[in-house]
Amino acid sequence: MKVRVLVRLKPGIMDVQGAAVEARARRPGFSEIADLRIGKVIDIELDATRPGEARTRVGEMCGQLLANPILEEYSMEIVTDLPRARSGAKMSAL
């Protein structure tokens, strides 16, 4: 089963990296940006047969390892089509 986890700073926690990217993005004319925050995406493939079981295990991983519960919040989704990472592969543009 494949699970995608999104980890980001909680609202009210200063996102220094996001603020720097937002300031830089405004210079070439992207003035419509109202707010920009940086997070991380973690794709996990695990041996689980039921979505509930996968969510429980990944929730445990997030609470103990993947996210700092004081500063960060996370969400997760079961996904059916996560490409396998390849060494040296380039990411495609969205």
Structural class: alpha+beta
Shape: elongated
Low-confidence stretches: none
Number of E-state strands: 3
Tell me the major beta sheet. Answer: 3 strands, antiparallel
Strand content: 15-25%
Order of helices and strands: EHEHE
Rounded to the nearest angstrom, the radius of gyration is 16 Å
DSSP helix count?
Answer: 2
Q: For the largest beta sheet, what order do the strands appear in spatially?
A: 2-1-3
| Share of helix, binned | 25-40%
- pLDDT averaged over residues: 87
Overview of this protein structure:
With 94 residues, the protein is of the alpha+beta class. It is 29% helix and 24% strand. The chain contains two helices and three strands, in the order E-H-E-H-E. The protein has helices spanning 16-26, 51-66; strands at 2-9, 39-45, 72-79. The chain has a three-stranded antiparallel β-sheet, with helices on one face.
